[in-house]
Amino acid sequence: MLALVVLPLAVMAQMKIATVDVQAVFDAMPESLRASEQLAKASQQYKAEYEMLQTEFNGKYAAYQGLAGDTPAAIRDRRVREIQESNNEIEEFLARSQASLAAMKQELEAPIYAKINAAIKEVGDAGGYTYIIDVSRTPVVYTGAGAIDLTSQVKRALGID
Asked: Which of 72, 92, 108, 134 could form a disulfide linkage to 35, CB 3.0–4.6 angstroms apart?
């Protein structure tokens, strides 16, 4: 019976747990700054295109509102269809541009996170840690005075200060 109580305690005593703030490491990396700049540039290009589409839409809408009351129904209907098509084009463009930016973000950030994860593994293996918890993504309810934060060690492993 004593062995059943003592064995789990002995296993727990051998576990080494540490934390790391992956977001802080990511933010400190030069690659993340370049990725942010590329995303911002693409976002500005999409914004400019959106503004152009919106200007076209507004022009069509203003032209429709300016039609005289005696304008034939066929012309009015054609203008309404043009406005609807323009609106649909804007909505499709917004959806495609958001998806494209999300894919671009994933593509740019994936190698950065892979590099961070490799550094965390290197530091973890060198220190003999059983678990390393990312405090930027996982809420930690309590951190005691003896908690080990490996963020600075991971930054050093990546050559960042």
From this structure: 108
